[in-house]
Design goal:
Chain lengths: 417, 407
């Protein structure tokens, strides 16, 4: 069938070129054509504003409705274009195959069958190549460049040269990462196991599990705001500033429990060194639900007969858990652990949201952000430094990644594919 | 005994987990003053708070011997929410009284006067009761100027939706953030699902050279930290943007209005980036599901002459609804909650910021208005929590399968 290769290549190229030209032009055209929708929405907003007598400025309503109009047509166009792609390519593939096979049915279906898979995986592969694969390598290459493009290892000088930019920060970031790496997964997994076991043995367990699981749905920034009420002091300095007479109380719950007076305003997560642990706790609060759900499912999968056998042998609940159940869900624990490790290594949102970006609370991701914003003093190779730290982040994730890839391969084999 | 112990431990954990939510919601329904001067746990019991009232309106000039009024009435005048109720503990008297040491002079004193004790205000005798009623008696009819008095009130709990009304209707950032978040999230959920479903079908049921190792590469991209891709992706987008800017200048008459500039960080760049970052997990999840569908069904469809596209749209999609649902929830929550991708790739102008970035900024701007900060946080988390609670089962299924995704 090698005979058909030129035809297949030709058809494939024709389809790819058509797509590359037709889709963007259609998108731009669709945007241009649907522009009146925005002004229609503005009119609608105006009418609603007038008829409901909203109190805020009419300009705001118009702005907002214009944005909603833009949103609606963007969503429709973006989704429409991705459907159009599949329809168009399929149509082209069949049409071109029919033309080039000149009536030979076998040839036609062979050509269609050869091109079809690439139509299906094409968009995914193109996106992954341009947004993950090539960028990963070009970041690597950037990290070994000066701003003018000459090769250098100077960007990594923070690894060994005490006088270089970021030397201290990198050490702090590594120290903190190690603390996070040890504590967060350990606490999450222990708590998750404990809750899974407890919840499965009481009647209201399902309610408890749902409540503990809800933080999983919340953004890290939301979680930071939520815990601010517990860890941070008042908003005003000094506390009794309203009319100079309002009696002031400590407004952070944990600070109040620790006996901090109202005038002592520093949030617990800003404390030197110890602040790290409060930031970690927020992540534990979010992620324990994840560990719990997975362990709960795994524990239910433990074969009944092993438990029965242990019961007959007179095992007490602790032995039952540590000797019988835990070894059988060991692989699940490992999966959760690797997931949490990767999450922790890339942790950015919580410290960033709470502006806990002093040196002694840095993590690699926040160090990257600091470098991007504040390191312009280091010349104009900020981007290269940024890339170098990103590569360090990748290096720390790498062992886990390899571990995960091997596990996936094993699973794939077990699935029989 | 162990059973009670279990209940107690679990209840304690649940309490710790739920308490921050109580703090969040409580703070958001309190008044500004209350939320920044006292902890949320004091909101449920009478708490001593300070207020200032004036004895009577300015410009009231009829002379009187005895004036009676009510402190709460005075305080609540012109106030349509968070009305103050409770008992009056004391009044902090600040004023001049005759100096006992120097007979002709007066001196400034600050003195806490309890309910029932008389005090000398502008030459009259001012007495008040815990209920708020006060009388101000002068030896002869006079028309004194109003006097501002600072009072400590054991104030009853009071809640109101004012903070929500303010952030939703008076502050334009929160509605904008809400709309922006939807603009980003909906396409960034639908597009990767469409693309991934096709790819997953191809990886599962079609034959093509390099299929297996391509799949392994795609799946292993799942754990590449997104940070690694930011710089080149951003450079790529600025390249496209400058190209689009010149195209815009060439095609339209934008130069006259100086609107040619096409932003490199936009909603579109966020959609594409989120799509790409979400694809590995989506392909992995969907492919493993589709592979498990009965082979005979697909083969008989092939024999009947159905094309791959027909099989895909008529058979695979309806059968894969659970997998599609679990990935879409996963991706929806992921994109809705994402901060870092939006920060690096997303639109930077204030009106288009997505909710997590807005909330992060509000942690700074609303640090004196905690009721607004908390109300805004409630609004931002209500969408994912509703999605999550209504489709919890699918979400957990996706979580179990996709527990490997790192970024």
């Amino acid at each position: 069938m090698g005979l058909y290769k030129p035809t297949i290549a030709g058809n494939g190229l024709a389809i790819a070129l058509t797509v590359i030209f037709v889709l963007p032009i259609t998108a731009i055209f669709a945007y241009a054509v649907t522009t009146p929708l925005d002004s229609a929405m503005v009119q609608l907003g105006h009418w609603l504003h007038e008829s409901r007598e909203w109190s805020f400025p009419v300009l705001q309503t118009q702005e907002r409705f214009a944005k909603i109009g833009f949103a609606i047509r963007s969503i429709i166009i973006a989704v429409g274009i991705s459907f159009l792609y599949f329809w168009l390519t399929n149509w082209l593939n069949q049409g071109l195959a029919r033309r080039s096979s000149k009536g030979s049915w076998g040839k036609e279906s062979y050509i269609i069958e050869s091109i079809q898979p690439w139509i299906f995986v094409g968009p995914a592969l193109v996106l992954l190549i341009f947004f993950l694969f090539i960028p990963a390598f070009s970041t690597l290459s950037l990290s070994f460049q000066e701003a003018d493009g000459t090769r250098t290892i100077r960007n990594y000088a923070f690894l060994w040269d005490p006088s270089s930019l970021g030397y201290e920060q990198f050490r702090y970031a590594m120290r903190n990462s190690i603390m996070w790496l040890v504590l967060v997964p350990t606490v999450c997994i222990s708590l998750g196991l404990l809750i899974a076991v407890l919840a499965d043995s009481v009647r209201w367990g399902i309610v408890a599990k749902t409540l503990i699981f809800i933080p999983m749905a919340i953004s890290f920034v939301g979680a930071a705001v939520i815990w601010r009420n517990i860890f941070a002091g008042g908003g005003i300095e000094p506390q009794q500033a309203i009319n100079g007479l309002t009696p002031s109380y400590q407004i952070g719950l944990l600070k109040a429990l620790l006996g901090h007076t109202a005038a002592y305003n520093e949030p617990l997560y800003s404390l030197k060194f110890w602040g790290n642990f409060f930031l970690m706790w927020i992540l534990v609060w979010v992620q324990t639900g994840f560990a719990m759900v997975i362990f709960s499912a795994a524990l239910r999968g433990v074969p009944e007969d092993t438990i029965e056998a242990a019961k007959i042998d007179g095992a007490n609940p602790f032995q039952m858990f540590f000797r019988i159940k835990l070894p059988q869900i060991y692989s699940t624990v490992v999966v959760v652990w690797t997931t949490l490790v990767i999450l922790v290594l890339k942790m950015f949102d919580i410290p960033y949201a709470l502006s806990a970006n002093d040196d002694d609370k840095l993590l690699l991701a926040t160090m990257m952000e600091n470098a991007r914003n504040n390191w312009s003093v280091g010349g104009d190779n900020v981007e290269n430094l940024f890339a170098a730290i990103a590569v360090m982040l990748m290096v720390t994730v790498l062992p886990n990644m390899i571990f995960n890839a091997r596990r996936l391969r094993r699973e794939q084999k077990e699935l029989g594919h | 005994m162990t059973r009670t112990f279990k209940h107690v431990v679990l209840a304690l954990i649940v309490f710790i987990w739920v308490l921050p939510f109580v703090a969040l919601v409580t703070t958001s329904v309190r008044s500004e003053t209350a939320s920044k001067t006292s902890g949320f746990w004091t909101a449920f019991t009478p708490t001593e708070l300070g207020h200032r009232f004036s004895t009577h309106d300015k410009g009231k000039t009829e002379p009187f011997v005895t004036m009676s009024g009510n402190i709460f009435e005075r305080l609540n005048q012109g106030r349509d929410s968070f009305e103050i109720e409770g008992t009056v503990n004391s009044i902090l008297f600040k004023g001049r009284v005759p100096d006992p040491d120097k007979p002709d002079k007066t001196k400034l004193i600050r003195q806490l006067i309890n309910a029932g004790e008389p005090m000398d205000v502008r030459g009259g005798e001012f007495v008040f009761h815990p209920s708020g009623d006060f009388t101000w008696t002068f030896p002869e009819a006079t028309a004194p100027k109003p006097k501002n008095l600072d009072t400590f009130i054991n104030q009853n709990p009071v809640f109101g939706p004012d903070a929500y009304i303010e952030v939703l209707f008076e502050n334009k950032n929160v509605p904008n953030a809400l709309i922006s978040s939807f603009i980003v999230t909906i396409p960034a959920t639908i597009i990767p699902i469409t693309i991934a479903a096709f790819a997953a079908y191809a990886f599962a049921w079609m034959r093509f050279p390099g299929r297996d190792w391509l799949f392994v590469i795609v799946v292993s991209l799942m754990v590449v930290p997104t940070q690694l891709a930011f710089l080149p992706v951003l450079q790529g987008f600025s390249g496209i943007a400058s190209w689009a800017t010149s195209l815009n200048a060439w095609m339209t008459d934008c130069e006259a209005t100086k609107t040619c500039q096409v932003a490199s960080k936009s909603f579109a760049s966020l959609w594409v980036t989120h799509t790409a970052f979400g694809l590995p997990l989506a392909i992995y999840l969907l492919r493993n599901y589709i592979v498990g569908l009965p082979k005979e069904l697909l083969e008989s469809a092939r024999i009947d002459g159905a094309s791959h596209l027909q099989i895909f749209t008529r058979l695979i999609i309806p059968l894969s609804v659970p997998a599609l649902a679990s990935f879409s929830i996963f991706q929806f929550l992921w994109v809705w909650n994402d901060l870092i991708v939006a920060l690096y790739i997303g639109p930077a102008n204030s009106a288009d910021l997505v909710f997590p970035i807005r909330l992060q900024k509000q942690l700074g701007t609303f640090k004196d208005q905690l009721h607004l900060l908390n109300a805004s946080a409630v609004i931002s988390i209500i969408v994912p929590v509703i999605v999550f609670l209504s489709m919890q089962r699918y979400f957990i299924r996706g979580l179990l399968a996709g527990s490997v995704k790192g970024g």
